[in-house]
Amino acid sequence: xxxxxxxxLTGWGFAALAFAALLVGFxxxxxxxxxxxxLAIFAALLPARASTGVLLPLLIAGDVLAVLTxxxxxxxxxxxxxxxxxxxxxxxxxxxxxxxxxxxVRVSIGAILLLMAAVTVLxxxxxxxxxxxxxxxxxxxxxxxxxxxxxxxxxxxxxNAGGPVMSLYLLxxxxxxxxxxxxxxxxxxxxxxxxxxxxxxxGLIDGxxxxxxxxxxxxxxxxxxxGRWAVDRIDQRxxxxxxxxxxxxxxxxxxxx
Length: 257
What we know:
The protein contains 12 helices and no strands. With 257 residues, it is mainly alpha-helical. It is found in: Cell membrane.
C-alpha cells in the first residue's frame, strides 16, 4: 500500500513530514519544546485532529531515545509530584477534544503557551533559583507543579503540545540542563504511552496512521543523535533562551494556523 497516496501527500509533503520527524528526535535530546514546529507541520499537511494521532508514536520513539540517553539525570520526586495532576489534565483534554473543533483547540493552546512563556520570563528576571528544584521543597512549588501538571496533561492530550508547558515548568523550578532533559525524558515517555488508549479510543490512531509512522520513524533517530551532539555545545543561558523561544514560536504558529 502506498502511504503517500493514502494520505494524499506529495513528495515535498512527505519530505516536510520527514524533517518534522527529525526535529522530534532533536527536541527530545536537545531543545525540548522545539517540536512545536513539528506539530505545526503535521497539522498543516494532514487533517488537524488526525495529525495528533500520527505524531504521538513518533514522540514516543523520541522519548525512548531520550530516556536511554539521559536516564541517570531524572529527578523522580518532581515526577511523582506531577503525575496525578497530569492525569487529571489528560482526562480534561480528552473531554475537550470530544467537544472542540480544530480552530478552538489551536487558539486555546497557542494562548496558553504564550501566557506561560511571558510568566516564565518574568520569573527568571525576578530571581535565579539554583540548587534543589522548587517543586519538591516549598508549598508554592507544589502548587505550581499541580498547576503546570494539569495544563501539561491538557495540552499534551489535545495537541501533543505539552512539551513547551513542561519545559517552562522545569526551567522555572530551577533545573539545570541535564536534570531538565533527564526528568522531561521520563515524564513524556510515561505520559505519551498513557495517552495511546485515549487517542485510539477517539479514532486518532489507526492502521493508516501507524503505516505513516512506520515510514517516518527512521528519521527520528538521526534527529536524536544530532541533539545529543548539540546539547554539550549549548551553554545553560542559551539553552534556556532556546526553550523559551521555541515555546513562543509554537504558540504564535498555533494562533495563526
